[in-house]
Design brief:
148 residues; alpha+beta; 2 domains; 42% helix; 28% strand
């Protein structure tokens, strides 16, 4: 009976972290945490800047993002929100059906890098200097991850 209880307790606290990407300086870029005893489930994803400061943290429950926290390069917390399904749909509205996979990949990069408000402001071009740099950075990240 003690073995069953210990096995059960161990299964409740079993956690697996894996580094998916590294920066060119060897520092982790994306780290995912999985928990579970019968089936591993993604519970957390963290991203880091090249200097090791945390960029964002996403918490998952049953495969759905429940919470996102983000920080800028100086370490200040960015106040943002989780993208709703209607906001995700708005992001995908101009996507041609033949390029759906590419668009979904690009959308995932945009949603991991920007809050919806930041995305909306970028589209409105409210800050031309920031917008050009941010758009260039996003384009490079999308090309790197998704191709084309």
């Amino acid at each position: 009976m003690k073995k069953i209880i210990l096995l059960f307790l161990f299964s409740l606290i079993f956690s697996l972290q894996t580094v998916l990407e590294y920066h060119s300086n060897g520092m982790p870029k994306i780290v995912k945490t999985y928990n579970g005893h019968i089936k591993l489930q993604l519970t957390k994803e963290m991203s880091y800047y090249p200097d090791g400061r945390q960029k964002y943290q996403k918490k998952y429950y049953n495969g759905e993002v429940q919470n996102i926290q983000r920080w800028d390069e100086s370490g200040r917390k960015i106040i943002g929100e989780i993208w709703t399904s209607s906001q995700e749909s708005e992001l995908m509205i101009d996507c041609p059906k033949k390029d759906k996979d590419l668009c979904e990949c690009g959308a995932s990069v945009i949603m991991s890098e920007l809050s919806f408000d930041e995305y909306a402001n970028l589209r409105k071009r409210t800050n031309p200097d920031w917008d050009v740099q941010k758009a260039t950075d996003l384009e490079a990240k999308i090309i790197k991850k998704c191709g084309k």
